[in-house]
Amino acid sequence: DALVAAWGDADENVRRATSDAVREKMRSPENAKLLPDLAQNHATDSVRALLDAGVPIDTRGDMGETALHWACWKGYADLAKLLVERGASLTVEDAQYHGTPPGWFGHGIRNNGEGGDYADVARVLVAAHAKFLDTDIPTGKEDVDAVLRGASAIK
């Protein structure tokens, strides 16, 4: 955790100068599994550091979820944008609920209760051509539904 945090706080010059051995440590299975955990806690800089070190973007957590699942569930638009831009899968299903990141978005908007930026997450998902379940839309959140209506995701 300390290595990931330190590398995440480093500037680009420090990251470039980092040895291959340190990069390999960052990609170790124990650190790779941190990716979804860090996303769950909105540690965007640390997520970026792991991705920059070569951790696979769709690394799975304890429930088979990815970092994008958590960004969608929690409404972390900056993190969702980073992950989608880096190529995170929109269709990968978690092992426990068999939900995709857009499915976690639909469930999180109703059940998370932490007040994420779901309208901006919707914009990210729509721009990436994500598929939403009919049961998840409309969401009942006017700002989010406006985004989805504008993208013709709500019929």
Tell me what the structure shows.
The protein has 155 residues and is mainly α. The protein has helices spanning 2-9, 12-17, 20-26, 29-32, 34-40, 44-52, 67-74, 77-85, 101-111, 118-127, 142-150. The model has no long low-confidence stretch (mean pLDDT 86).
User: Which descriptor suits the 3D outline?
Assistant: globular
Strand content: under 5%
Number of helix segments? 11
Low-confidence segments, given as residue ranges, are: none
Radius of gyration from CA coordinates: 16 Å
Number of strands: 0
Whole-number mean pLDDT? 86
Largest sheet: none
> Gap between N and C termini, in Å?
45 Å
Structural class: mainly alpha
What is the succession of H and E elements?
HHHHHHHHHHH
Report the helical percentage.
55-70%
Q: Quick recap of the structure?
A:
The protein is mainly alpha-helical. The protein has eleven helices and no strands. The longest helix has 11 residues, at 101-111.
SSE topology sketch:
Layout (H helix, E strand, L loop, with lengths): L1 H8 L2 H6 L2 H7 L2 H4 L1 H7 L3 H9 L14 H8 L2 H9 L15 H11 L6 H10 L14 H9 L5
Helix pairs in contact: 1-6, 5-6, 5-7, 7-8, 7-9, 8-10, 10-11
